[in-house]
UniProtKB/TrEMBL annotation:
InterPro entries: Mechanosensitive_channel_CS, MS_channel, MSC/AndL, MscL_channel. The lineage of its organism: Bacteria, Bacillati, Bacillota, Bacilli, Lactobacillales. This is Large-conductance mechanosensitive channel. GO terms for cellular component: plasma membrane. It is found in: Cell membrane. Keywords: Cell membrane, Ion channel, Ion transport, Membrane, Transmembrane, Transmembrane helix, Transport. PANTHER family: LARGE-CONDUCTANCE MECHANOSENSITIVE CHANNEL, MECHANOSENSITIVE CHANNEL MSCL. SUPFAM superfamilies: Gated mechanosensitive channel. Homopentamer. Belongs to the MscL family.
Amino acid sequence: MLKEFKEFLMRGNVIDLAVAVVIGGAFQKIVSALVTAIINPIIAAIFNAEAIAKVVWTIGSVNLGVGELAAAIINFLIVGAVLFVVVKAMNTAQNLRKKDEEVVEEVPATPTTEELLAQIRDLLADK
């Protein structure tokens, strides 16, 4: 059972997934810091609030706290945009590699020495 578990862990897909999760977690921290330190204060300044969490819309007697929702949406859009770019780049690279492999496969095989000698013989026989 331990051997099967080791084989499972050593498969490429599991290792790739683990790397993706670690990198994704680190990237999420970067995006959260960007949103918290730069974008949230800009939004708070636009709405004349101390912090984005204090940005509220008042409709009648109801206060809607839209600041945190806005921060979460911005965070999601940044992560989604970067993931889109990464996946698009990976697909483009994969397609280029497939095209290169197809070009290599389309190269005609060079004739063997015997085939060349047979062609020369046939040419000499025609004269």
